[in-house]
């Protein structure tokens, strides 16, 4: 069965074509103005931040030369031609691996403490579980403060208070993780189905019972996924915290940079990259498995 298309007379179509052309032209003009404003804002921000593209272009070869020197041993050989031994690229592998393990442990403990604290605060910050606006607002402002202050700043404060070592790094990661995970957790909680919660309350259960039997079963897989993701992030962050003396492999990396031990810089960077890749691949598969299990349930 065929279908007929009724065309309007030209006299009626012409005003519609003109209106469509005006709408298209107005949209293109808005896009052009937005692009111009975006470019001007970018140039203005670059000027305030003293970002000089010409200076970068003039010194581009210095940057490449630094990376090139990092791939040479003191003997003049390329780093990958002599990997082991006293004069090899990974001459201090045992000590570096020990510090890498320390970095991973710092990340795990900091993430675990931050996850526990974020879990406790997220239920207070959730609008569908906490009807006290002032308490909910206070919890959210606390989480905002913890994730807004850079973990390097926290680490500097704790290094001043507790001295050099892993403890300041763990505390800094824990505080920053609390702010980040707490926000992610309460957003998950606010999107749950409330019927099970009302059912627990109607049967005489209190707030803790509602959380245990109605909320957690709906969000536990998401919580675990965010926890694993945060652990990945903290491994990278912990490698940087050594810059301020907060333990881990970062201290040796900064020492090598300051003393111009070029081959040591590249060796440590390679170890950090390989470690982070291995952790991200493993945790990524675990996170996908958790989300897959959640989707099947």
From the alpha-carbon coordinates, what is the Rg to the nearest angstrom?
A: 28 Å
Number of helical elements: 11
How much strand? under 5%
Overall pLDDT level: 85
Which stretches are poorly predicted, pLDDT < 50 over at least 5 residues?
Answer: none
The geometry reads as: flat
Q: Strand tally, please?
A: 0
Describe the main β-sheet briefly: none
Which CATH architecture of the domain at 93-296 is right?
A: Orthogonal Bundle
CATH superfamily of the domain at 93-296: MetI-like
**Strand-pairing-aware structural class:** mainly alpha
Instruction: Give the helix level as a range of percent.
Output: over 70%
CATH class of the domain at 93-296: Mainly Alpha
Topology as H/E string? HHHHHHHHHHH
Distance between the termini: 46 Å
Could you please say which CATH topology of the domain at 93-296 applies here?
Answer: MetI-like fold
Give your account of this protein's structure.
The longest helix is centred in the first third of the chain and has 39 residues, at 10-48. The two termini are 46 Å apart. Helix 5 (133-148) crosses helix 7, helix 6 packs across helix 7 (166-189) and helix 8 crosses helix 9 (207-241). It contains 11 helices and no strands. It has helices at 10-48, 53-58, 60-69, 93-125, 133-148, 151-162, 166-189, 195-202, 207-241, 250-258, 262-296. The protein has a domain at 93-296: MetI-like (MetI-like fold), CATH 1.10.3720. The model has no long low-confidence stretch (mean pLDDT 85). By secondary structure, it is mainly alpha-helical.
